[in-house]
Amino acid sequence: MSLTHLQSFVAVAEEGHVGRAARRLHLTQPPLSRHILALEDELGARLFERTRSGMRLLPAGEAFLLHARRILAEVDAAVHTVRGVTGTRSGG
Fold first, then answer.
1. How far apart are CA 30 and CA 92, in angstroms?
2. CA 39 to CA 77: how far, in whole Å?
3. What is the rounded distance in angstroms from the CA atom of residue 32 to the CA atom of residue 11?
4. SS3 for 19?
5. DSSP bridge partners of 51
């Protein structure tokens, strides 16, 4: 499971739509959809119901969302801690 997959999942969950989430993440829809499918495959559970108007979280997705947000927040905090210690402002 990659951070990219978690970021993709959270964006789709919050936007409720793959197209809007793709724009938010500066991606196109096909790779974003592949991220979601790969995550669902790895977890062995469908996270979203695909509807005509977008994506709706299923119970497994609702349960996973809290954890995904927490993981991403922890990674962000770790990056800020390291940058504070080293005095760097950006990665790269």
1. 27
2. 23
3. 10
4. helix
5. 54
Tell me the percentage of the chain whose pLDDT exceeds 90. 86
Choices 1.10.10.10, 3.30.200.20, 1.10.3980.10, 3.40.50.10490: CATH for 3-86: 1.10.10.10
Q: Residue 72: CA atoms inside 13 Å, Cβ hemisphere, count?
A: 16
Which amino acid, 11?
A
Query: In this predicted model, what pLDDT tens digit does every residue of 11-27 receive, in sequence order?
Result: 999 999 999 999 999 99
Domain ranges of the chain: 3-86
- Tell me how far apart the alpha carbons of residues 77 and 92 are, in angstroms, rounded to a whole number: 17
pLDDT in tens, 34-57: 999 999 999 999 999 999 999 999
CB 38 within 8 A of CB 5: yes
Provide the residue count of the chain: 92
User: How much is the average pLDDT of 60-78?
Assistant: 97
